[in-house]
Amino acid sequence: MGDGYYTATAPSASFIAVESSVAWRRACRIPCRRYIVCMNTSATSFRSRAVERVVRGQATSDGDGVKLTRVLTQPLQQRLDPFLMLDAFGSDAASDYIGGFPDHPHRGFETVTIMLEGRMRHRDSVGNVGLLEPGSVQWMTAGRGIIHSEMPEQEQGRMAGFQLWVNLAAADKMTAPAYRDITPASVPAYTDAAGVHVRVIAGASHGTSGAVTRPTTEPVVLDLTLPAGAVFDAELPPGHNAFAYVFGATPVAIGGAGSSAVEPERMAILANEPGSDGVRLAVAGDATAPARVLLVAGRPLREPIAQHGPFVMNTTAELQRAVQDFQRGVLAA
Fold first, then answer.
1. Domains and CATH numbers, the chain
2. Sequential DSSP letters for 99-139
3. pTM of this prediction exceeds 0.85
4. What distance lies between CA 223 and its chain's CA centroid?
5. Mean pLDDT on 103-112
6. How far apart are the first and last CA of the chain?
């Protein structure tokens, strides 16, 4: 899903709308978007990261014509290292997703598929078969090579979710491929006193360990649902690159004092501020629907990134070898 095999070239920067926090604060003065959120920073020592910039994704298609939004694109890979790509997909029209993602290869990174609505069937060259259903997560390590497909198991209704690509360190790129299906019931979750529901897909949050722990990149992946009037302080490891993607229908104020209002279908890149504890998220008290946020953070690898479609290595020579291995039929051997 969102494998990049059909879109190997980097997208034009003109497709990426980067909006300053100043602009968003100006927008919040419009009555219909006004945020009256009491951060009460004097009552807590929590130091929140600020929003560095807000990014709007690029509408595109992948696989066999599946329509999606590419939120984290190649120009942002170094800034959001170790994350390489984030695709958001969601449609009620079967014609937007029915073609699915037929067999395609990967090498050199991990894919994380988070299903919100709908059903997809996974099959791969290692022999794994899995069902993605609402609330489930699939964590796949491509390593030295895997060929897989993700095909709809429905002909009508809504299909929605995300696919995140997480880079592997140079020392791990040729590791054996691995695959894990995580059922909805197996994703650790909790609800805090403010009614914020937190699904801890990877890493940890307020003492709750996630379904996945990965060495080296140490990712944190949280699926958050925040009711009207809620304020949530998400702890993030110092030095991790981080972003928050707002989806659903309700904007979210992100950051501490002077926070930025981030509209749905926008990604807020969080500043790497020394001494910060994480990020504060808040929802207006008059919100008519809960807010949804995908919060992601990871330890940067600080290694060269060489990508050609579904292959992500460190050098051009390694990319050429990956393409040759695929053409000779030994990529996943």
1. 16-302+315-324 (2.60.120.10)
2. T-EEEEEEBSEEEEEEEEES-EEEEETTS-EEEE-TT-EEE
3. yes
4. 10
5. 98
6. 22
